[in-house]
Write a structure and sequence with these properties.
The complex is a heterotrimer of chains A (223), B (268) and C (297).
Chain A lengths: L7 H34 L2 H32 L3 H35 L8 H21 L3 H31 L4 H36 L7
Helix pairs in contact in A: 1-2, 1-3, 1-4, 2-3, 3-6, 4-5, 4-6, 5-6
Chain B lengths: L19 E10 L2 E11 L4 E5 L6 H8 L9 E9 L2 E2 L7 H7 E4 L11 H11 L6 H14 L3 H4 L12 H14 L4 E5 L7 H14 L4 E5 L3 H7 L2 E6 L2 E7 H6 L4 H8 L4
Parallel strand pairs in B: 3-8, 3-9, 6-7, 7-8
Antiparallel strand pairs in B: 1-2, 1-4, 4-5, 9-10
Chain C lengths: L20 H32 L5 H5 L12 H33 L3 H13 L4 H15 L6 H25 L3 H9 L4 H30 L2 H6 L19 H9 L4 H36 L2
Helix pairs in contact in C: 1-11, 3-6, 3-8, 3-10, 5-6, 6-8, 7-8, 8-11, 10-11
């Protein structure tokens, strides 16, 4: 039985913030998915369209920041509410950075689209893994699920492994066939960007743990 | 990311004995039990805030500490209250003498209307028939008014009636009056609820200085005030002490769900 | 989401409606209720004054009663009244205030206190001649005080004490509880709280009660007669054991004489009585107002 705040305006504002964070993370997730596809399918139009979405993500960041400031000023949140607001401020930054990284991937996609095809086997796999991490981290945050958040932290190790695999494979490829050099470099950049997206998703997961753990320190585990 | 989850909030067991300590404190108004077995330490030279909804027993609690609760017809109590280890309800204890060591400031500023500022400050001494020479009396007046951060404002008007001052000044006058008798403990029952924000801020600032010399317990229904001024906070609900913790902890991550709900404004 | 919020109505008229006849009628009646008795009183006083003006002079005030109306003076009666008031105040005020303090502060809700309280209210309504009889039996005969100023003063004290007690109790009750609390919290015994805080604050009310009681005492005639005040006295009382007379008695004496001239004397006597009473009352009221201004902030 979770109670709600007696002040309904306050409750509504917190709910609004939660919704905006989820919406922002969904939009950013869409960008990552589209960016990876643009790379693999060498689709320049898709890449450019995805880059345009970043403007909206930036706007979301400003709106969320403003909402947090407003809530702090007017309602002086305490305890778990306070932790939620401080985390929201950080999370928004991480999400916005993921958006920027997706833009970077799209820029590489534009370059690669004019070149001959390439074997991108591992890129989509990394993309999937990273999107899974982001989705889980946000879900862990929304439903205060520390276990799920910890799973995300573990998944980051895998993503790092993938990146090193890609790096080694690309090095080999470029040594064997110097004509692939330019493409190889771009692909390596894309892989790096995906790895960093994974790191930001990890940040979000850590914040979710903080939100939960700060409250549960003396509580028995939920049944 | 670290938090103030550092020290578990048990009473400072490894520190010297708390200034005031209650054991199983219960209180009744007639048949109505308003305090249900409270065990609570109040450490020396710190500010302890007591918060909770109306009717939770917080005012009754501090009135049991200086034996003012029993002055209400039909009121009674049970349990022990120890001041420096001595039970203040012992059969050989004089409540009047106790109240000179445990002073109290009330919600509504109440300087004595028939007295000047100077006489108000000295009222505590006069009431206890302490004879003071003139210069000694002036010394007491000045140090008490300085201690209450009121000296600079009234030093040229000591003969004016106490009631001529503003609300915030009157309350500081009451504080001066209380500290003039040099108590060990200062109990404050919602001292700022009748004051405007500026007067409130002055008194809150004063508390930081006062705790160097006295032990302070303050009842407040303003959570932000408790967060600002206190070192440790106690949350009362329906006559019980629900949680006692360092203020940093209780306002960032309280242990008890009921504390969390009250502090975040989920009153049900 | 919000249930049961009444429809918002804008624009309720704020213009004057009707002529408020009911209220005006009430105000008019109230004014009438006070104007009529006041006018009657003023009329009576003016009538008496017109009779007395010619008669009052210094000789009248310092003179002694005489069979000749023109030579009669009021000094013994004046002095007697002043003696009575002085002694009554000395006896009734401390005792009355003390009793009220006990009842209010110490008696609490005990059965004894309740019993006393009920009876005091009754005593205030007892006809004054009963007090006279009591005074005669107790002070004059039993205590052997004979027909002295002291006996008269004691009798009057009994009469006015209920007034003093009730007024003092009311005054004590007006001292707000939080002031008593503040004094107690400073470490004061009950008596210290009363003496230093409660009594100074209730002084205006106590003075009011005193004024009322003195005003009552100065006008009493019947009990004094029963106790044995003289109606014709040619000397002044020198100490409490001496016989005495009082202004109302002297006036009564003159009024019962058939000669016209004595009626004029009576009117003059009434004026002296009124002036004395007004002077005393005004002094006390001034004092009370001064005290009240100090407290009422």
């Amino acid at each position: 039985m979770t109670r709600t705040h007696t002040d309904r305006e306050y409750e509504a504002k917190l709910e609004d913030l939660r919704r905006r964070l989820v919406a922002m993370s969904e939009r950013v997730d869409g960008m990552v998915e589209a960016a990876v596809r643009a790379v693999v399918e060498r689709d320049e139009a898709l890449a450019r369209a995805t880059m345009a979405v970043d403007r909206e993500v930036d706007r979301c960041e400003l709106e969320c920041d403003e909402l947090c400031l407003l809530i702090l000023a007017r309602w002086q949140p305490m305890a778990s509410d306070l932790r939620f607001i401080t985390i929201a401020l950080k999370m928004v930054t991480d999400l916005e950075r993921i958006g920027d990284l997706a833009v970077n991937i799209c820029q590489r996609a534009v370059r690669l689209s004019s070149k001959p095809p390439f074997d991108y086997a591992i890129i989509p796999k990394m993309g999937e893994a990273v999107r899974q991490m982001l989705g889980d981290a946000v879900r862990a945050f929304v439903s205060a699920d520390a276990e799920l958040a910890r799973a995300v932290l573990r998944a980051d190790d895998e993503v790092d492994e993938h990146y090193h695999e890609v790096f080694r494979a690309l090095m080999q490829l470029m040594r064997d066939d110097p004509a692939l050099l330019e493409r190889g470099v771009h692909v390596q950049s894309v892989a790096k960007f995906l790895e960093r997206i994974g790191d930001h998703a990890t940040n979000v997961a850590e914040q979710a743990i903080f939100l939960v753990a700060g409250k549960d320190v003396r509580h028995p585990p939920k049944p | 990311m670290t938090l103030a989850t550092s020290a578990p909030s048990a009473a400072p067991a490894t520190e010297p004995r708390p200034k005031l300590m209650t054991h199983g404190l219960e209180a009744w108004f007639g048949d109505n039990r308003v305090l249900k077995g409270v065990d609570m330490p109040i450490p020396a030279h710190r500010v302890t805030a007591i918060i909770g909804p109306s009717g939770c027993g917080k005012s009754t609690f501090i009135r049991c500490l200086n034996r003012m609760h029993e002055m209400v017809p039909g009121a009674r109590m049970a349990g022990r209250v120890e001041l420096d280890g001595q039970d203040v309800y012992g059969p050989d204890i004089d409540p009047v003498l106790l109240r000179r060591r445990v002073g109290m400031v009330f919600q509504k500023p109440n300087p004595f209307p028939t007295m000047s500022i100077r006489d108000n400050v000295l009222a505590g001494m006069k009431l206890s028939r302490r004879k003071l020479g003139k210069s000694e009396a002036e010394g007491v007046v000045e140090s008490a008014l300085r201690g209450a951060a009121l000296w600079d404002e009234v030093k040229d008007q000591l003969k004016k009636p106490g009631m001529d001052l503003s609300g915030g000044q009157q309350q500081r006058l009451c504080i001066a009056r209380s500290i003039a008798v040099e108590p060990d403990v200062l109990l404050m029952d919602e001292p700022c609820s009748a004051l405007d924000p500026i007067a409130t801020a002055r008194i809150e600032d004063l508390l930081h200085e006062l705790k160097a010399r006295y032990t302070i317990a303050i009842v407040t229904h303003n959570m932000q005030q408790a967060a600002r001024v206190s070192d440790q906070t106690a949350f009362f609900l329906s006559g019980e002490l629900v949680e006692l913790a360092e203020t940093n902890t209780i306002f960032t991550s309280p242990g008890d769900r009921r504390t969390e709900d009250y502090i975040t404004g989920k009153f049900g | 989401m919000s249930v049961g919020v009444p429809e918002i109505r804008d624009g309720a008229s704020i213009r004057r409606r009707g002529r408020n006849l009911g209220e005006r009628a009430f105000v008019a009646l109230s004014l009438l209720a006070i104007a009529i008795p006041l006018l009657i009183l003023v009329g009576l006083v003016a009538h008496t004054l017109s009779d007395a003006l010619g008669r009052i002079d210094w000789d009248f005030i310092v003179g002694y009663p005489s069979r000749r109306a023109s030579a009669a003076g009021i000094l013994p009666a004046l002095v007697g009244s002043l003696w009575l008031i002085g002694l009554t105040a000395l006896i009734a005020l401390p005792l009355g205030v003390g009793a009220a303090v006990w009842l209010e502060e110490y008696g609490g809700r005990s059965r004894l206190a309740g019993f006393i309280e009920v009876n005091i209210a009754n005593l205030a309504g007892v006809p004054s001649i009963i007090y006279g009889l009591l005074g005669l039996g107790l002070f004059v005969r039993f205590l052997g005080l004979d027909r002295s100023v002291l006996a008269g003063a004691l009798t009057l004290s009994l009469l006015v004490m209920p007034i003093v007690i009730m007024a003092t109790r009311e005054a004590l009750r007006t001292v707000p509880g939080h002031l008593r609390e503040a004094a107690a919290a400073l470490g004061a015994t009950r008596w210290q709280v009363i003496r230093q805080v409660v009594l100074p604050m209730s002084l205006p009310g106590i003075l009011t009660g005193s004024i009322l009681s003195i005003s009552r005492a100065i006008g009493e005639t019947a009990p004094l007669i029963v106790v044995g005040a003289l109606t014709y006295m040619t000397f002044l009382p020198q100490d409490p054991g001496d016989p005495f007379t009082a202004l109302p008695i002297q006036i009564y004496n003159w009024v019962s004489r058939p000669q016209e001239a004595f009626l004029v004397n009576a009117a003059a006597g009434i004026m002296v009585l009124l002036v004395t009473m007004l002077t005393l009352n005004s002094a006390a009221i001034l004092l009370r107002n001064r005290l009240q201004r100090r407290i009422r902030r």
